[in-house]
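Re: oxa(dethia)-CoA structure - here you go.
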Amino acid sequence: MTRIKAAITAVHGHLPDYILTNQELEQMVDTTDEWISTRTGIKERRILKGKGLATSDMGAEAVKALLEKRGIGADEVDMLICSTVTPDMKFPATANLISHKVGINNAFSYDMNAACSGFIYALVTASNFVETGKYQKVVVVGADKMSSIVDYSDRQTCVIFGDAAAAVLLEPSDDDTGITDHRFGSDGSGYVHLHMKAGGSLKPPTYDTIDAREHYVYQEGQPVFKFAVTKMAGVSLELMESNNLQADDVAWLVPHQANMRIIEATGRRMGMPSEKVMVNIDKFGNTTNATIPLCLWDYEKKLKKGDNIILTAFGGGFTWGAVWIKWS
Ligand code: UT7
């Protein structure tokens, strides 16, 4: 039996209007544009401002534009997965809120959380549904309002993150293009380096947890940095080797946008020239679950049918992975 592959048939993002520049951050914490630019590559990031606006609002805007672009109605969508670490509420799933806001009423939706690797995990999960032949139109959204969990008095983390959403539509491929293979891994012992201390069942919110500022991202930058480079490059090379792909065969590397130095080191280890590595961290910072689909959206016009694309991510947990797509 021939395998039905899932093709990405549309991609679209949504960026909040407010631009938080390095210069504005200089007024907020003890930092400089020079430090942020040289240590992270980030110049500015977007922030979702406005009362009552949450991750689902950005996700809904991305999905509305996605469906419009593909020319399909909300009622044609079979399934929607949202990957996020900043759900609107602990429950229900932000995916359901996005579906509701978009008018997707004939589908089922749920969230996935694998920290910064969430989007690629959700993408492969969704592609498996398409491969069964039962689902024709599946939406995957990566969305995060990181500003809701970032401590703007902590210079180590507040300069890195931004808010955004981006979505892709998966449909059965009518040729050999589509999501072709993947490799994923995780190691729970790494949680110590990157997590949020309170707000879960381990430490429900109390006045004490708020006073101790435990509802924000806690990160030990250096161990995360080392892990990121080793795992993104390692898992991508493993995926390429097992599919007999050389660096020359790969048209684009799409790395999670966490730090420009991590992106460059990963590309170097993989033998990928910088012009084949997607980068937009300078404009948007680390938007967690949105970075990879935002890159695809940004570079969409340069992509050609049949291009071999390697997506790779790592994140808190620890989680990591790589996905091979033949662009449709
Ligand atoms: O997707 C989520 C996963 N997260 C990541 O990928 C983050 C990975 N880690 C990183 O990107 C980097 O480790 C950071 C950007 C977080 C930090 O960069 P670094 O080059 O590893 O800096 P460092 O932590 O070694 O700190 C070097 C110095 C320290 O000062 P001292 O102790 O040498 O005097 C820090 O206090 O830089 C200082 N520093 C800053 N200085 C100015 C830390 N943050 C800042 C800042 N502005 N914003």
